[in-house]
Amino acid sequence: MISDAPVLQQTSEPAESAAAPPRLSRYARPVLGLLLPLILALGWELVVWLGWSNGRLVPSPSRVFGTITELARSGELVRHIAATLWRVGLGFAFGVIAGTVLGAISGYWSLARRLLDPTVQALRAIPSLAWVPLFILWLGIFETSKIALIAVGVFFPVYLGVMGAILSVDRKIVEVGRTFRLSGFAMIRRMLLPAVLPAYVVSLRVGLGLGWMFVVAAELIGASEGLGYLLLDGQQLGKPAQILAAIVIFAILGKLTDWLIEVSAAPFLRWQDAFGRARGA
Fold first, then answer.
1. Which key words are in the record (predicted)?
2. What is the pTM of this model?
3. Which of 3, 63, 130, 228 has its CA at 20 to 30 Å from residue 113's CA atom?
4. Using CA atoms, how far apart are residues 113 and 86, in angstroms rounded to an integer?
C-alpha cells in the first residue's frame, strides 16, 4: 500500500497538466481573435503619427475613438445604437419565424417545395435596395418598412438552411425511426431536429449577418436615428471619423450578437462529435 502512493501521485500529475491546456485555450481564443484588429489599428496609428499619411480620408484609430467618446457623452450614440438594435431584433425575429416555417414545409413536403421554392429562389436574387421603393410605397417611411426590409434579408438564408438541412438528413435515420414506429411528431423531435439543428444554427448566424447589412439600406428610408443614419450623416457632412466610428460599432455589435447565438446554441449541440470540437476550435 505504501509503495502504491507515489505511483498514484505520479499518475495524477499528468492528468492535471493535461487538463490545463484546454482551460488556457478557452481564454486564449478571444485574445487571439482581438490580436489582428489591434495590430492593424496600432499600425495605422503609427503611420499617421509618423506623418506618412495625413489621416484625412482614413482617420487614425485614436481620432475614431475620440469621435465615439464624443457621441457617447452627448447621448447620441446610445440613441442610435438602441434604434438600430430594435430594428435588427424585430426584423430578425420575423425573418427567422417565416424562414423556419416555410423552410421546414418545403423540406418536409415535396409538393410544397415544388410550389414555393422556385418563387423564393427568384425573389432571393433581388438586390436589397430594389425593395426600398416598393416598401416605401406599401408601408410608408416609418418603422414598418424598415423592419420588413430587414426581415426579407434574414428570411432567405434561414429558409435555405432549414430546407437544405432537412433534405440532407440521412435516409437511414428516418428508416430507424420508422422501424421503431415513431409518430410524426416523435420522428421530428427525436430524429429530424437533432440532425437539422447544426445547419439551422449556421443559417441563423448567416441570417443575422444579412440583417445587419440590410439595416443600413433600411435606415436610408427616412430615418432620423440609427447607425445607418449616422453613416449617411457622416458622408453628407464630410466626416470620415464619424463614418469609421459607425462602421466599428456595426462590427462590434455584429460580433456580439453572433456570439450570443453561438453561446445560446452550444448546450443543444453538445452531442456533436465533430472535427472542430475535437480540436477545440
1. Cell membrane, Membrane, Transmembrane, Transmembrane helix, Transport
2. 0.81
3. 130
4. 33
